[in-house]
Amino acid sequence: MSTAEPIIMPGRQDEKTAHFVSPPDAYTWKPERTLSETVLPAETPEPEPPDTADLAPVADRGDVGMTKQAIYRHLRELRDDFTPPPGLTYPEISDEQIVMMMSPRPRHQLTAKDITRQLDPQLPEGIFAYESTDVDDENLGKLRVPDIIVTSREAMMTDDPLDPREITLAIEIVSPSNPDNDYRDKTSDYPAMGIPHYLIVDPRNGTWTYQWQIGKVGGLVAYENRLHLSYKNTVTITTELGEWTIETGDLPRYSERDMRHV
Fold first, then answer.
1. Which SUPFAM superfamilies match (predicted)?
2. Using CA atoms, how far apart are residues 167 and 127, in angstroms rounded to an integer?
3. Nearest C-alpha neighbor of 209 from the set 168, 177, 178, 248
């Protein structure tokens, strides 16, 4: 997934004030203090939230008894009404936070197209590879936007984010700026969401990582199998729908300029 330092908008219920921090490529919203940390003299007025209409629903919320699902629904409403600033994509939701990503670089998108063009002719009738589709699990409080998914046309005929259990394969293309989002966060999220096969393609160093077989590792839901190889090796993905291959030798690598775009 193409990313910069994530824009994080926490969804916890006890936040009273907020401020903006401006690193080179992103804006981060985070609480300045919480109810438990704020001690005000009787004559001191309560701090005012920032004059930011898009953030008001989160910043003004006073109900400290919200469930994870309620927080997620609130963040979904915020996301649905949010217009990304130039250069940013629509955000994802994980761990009670809204995380916004930088728009992808051209070689990122070229990699996605090269992969989908290889996959589509191999897939059974009614199954296709789609790019950048909302996928959510309300019980887990997560909404992700994989770079590529393999699912049925029927599953895509929905007004809501896609059910992750309808997905056979998710593919992420690593950005230069935030590889942890794909290697760490989504490696944790995708098996928990029930996606049985997960492929990470990394144009930074010309490698791929394939993970499959959902089970338990250290008591947590996780992929039990992992294969990490270089681009010169063919990816072979064996699923209940068939076996598919992806030739990686001609996939583009990021340029030096791409690598500086963080």
1. Restriction endonuclease-like
2. 10
3. 248
pLDDT digits (tens, 9 = 90+) for 101-159: 888 999 999 999 999 999 999 999 999 999 999 999 999 999 999 999 999 999 999 99
**Per the CATH hierarchy, to which homologous superfamily does domain 106-260 belong?**
tt1808, chain A (3.90.1570.10)
Q: Two tokens at 206?
A: 């010309």
Structure tokens that stand for 241 in this block: 């729908």
In this predicted model, what pLDDT tens digit does every residue of 18-34 receive, in sequence order? 332 333 333 333 333 33
Predicted confidence band of residue 17 (pLDDT cuts 50, 70, 90): very low
Residue 84's nearest CA partner among 99, 69, 68 is: 99
In sequence order, what are the residues at sequence separation of 6 or more whose Cβ sits closer than 8 angstroms to the Cβ of residue 100? 6, 7, 26, 84, 88, 89, 90, 91, 92
Distances in Å between the alpha carbon of 223 and those of 19, 54, 178, 215, 226? Answer: 38, 37, 21, 6, 7
H runs (alpha helix) in the chain: 56-59, 68-80, 106-119, 153-156, 180, 186-193, 256-260
Structural domain boundaries of the chain? 7-100, 106-260
pTM for the model: 0.76
CA distance 148 to 113: 9
Task: Determine the Cα angle at 44 with ends 43 and 46, to 5°.
Answer: 130
CA geometry: angle 234, 169, 223, nearest 5 deg: 90
Structure-token pair, residue 51: 């004059």
